[in-house]
Amino acid sequence: MAKKIRQRNETDDKYKWDLESMYPNEQKWESDLLAVKDKVRELAGYRGRTAADAKTLLRVLRLSDSINLTAENVVVYAMMRRDEDNRREKYQAMCDRAMSALAQLSAEIAFVEPELLSHDKEEIFGFIDDEPELETYRFYLDRAFREKDHVLSEKEERLMARFSELTRAPSDIFRMLNDADLKFGVITDENGEEAELTHGNYITFMQSKNREVRKQAYTHCYETYRSMINTIASAYNYSVKCDCTSAEIR
């Protein structure tokens, strides 16, 4: 009689993220996705006058903050839903929508930093004296000017933002391979029971007092990766090329 393979219970709530605390329903997620686009259109109205005066700069920075915070919630929720089970097409699609929207939004607000940095640092920091509430952004402003040499023109920053969706492809390919497609097989645990080896229980098995259990876990894990060595190497190769190309452009 075949042994029963022990698997973790995918329906056990104590092993799940409480994503409902972020979005009690996915209609609210859709609403936030639309809200971000509305805010971006509002911010676009400041193009050409980002740092016209202290109050305008404060409004731009606050609006930019609001966009980034809401967009981050939208993206993180979609990614975490997908990461619950990378094989679920619904959340793959939701994540793709979120990341595509983020790339488009980043392109739309790419004018902010180039316009800000077209002013003298002394002038911008003088605005803090005129508008004390800008003090909140002192660190951001200081960092922006320190990185000024690597900030491109608005047109170039817009292009970089649009291509960000493509440059993350190697990472996405590896994630789907690693978290959805690869199976690490079955090993025999300390109690003589067969158990499926997963990312989640690998460390537990590697901490076993039984040397044979540790050996099985290690061997099964890395033999599986070795079987895909050419695919993984190719994804890594293009990941490095994306980083190097981005660095060279900047």
What does the model show?
The protein is mostly helical and 250 residues long. The protein is 67% helix and 2% strand. The chain contains 11 helices and 2 strands, in the order ααααααααββααα. Strands 1-2 form a two-stranded antiparallel ribbon. A hairpin with a 5-residue loop joins strand 1 and strand 2 (194-196). Helix 3 runs antiparallel to helix 7 and helix 5 (121-130) packs antiparallel against helix 6 (138-146). The longest helix has 31 residues, at 54-84.
Topology:
Layout: H1 26-44, H2 54-84, H3 89-108, H4 112-117, H5 121-130, H6 138-146, H7 154-167, H8 169-181, E1 186-188, E2 194-196, H9 199-206, H10 211-227, H11 229-249
Antiparallel strand pairs: 1-2
Helix pairs in contact: 1-2, 1-3, 2-3, 3-7, 5-6, 8-11
Keywords:
67% helix; disordered N terminus; two-stranded antiparallel ribbon; 11 helices; mainly alpha; 250 residues; elongated
Instruction: Please report the distance between the alpha carbons of the first and last residues.
Output: 64 Å
Structural class, by secondary structure, is mainly alpha
The number of helices is: 11
Indicate the proportion of strand residues: under 5%
Biggest sheet record: 2 strands, antiparallel
Q: Strand order, main sheet: write it out.
A: 1-2
Low-confidence region ranges: 1-6
**Strand and helix order:** HHHHHHHHEEHHH
Multimer state: single chain
Percent in helix:
55-70%
Compute the number of strand runs: 2
**Large-scale geometry:** elongated
Mean of all residue-level pLDDT scores? 89
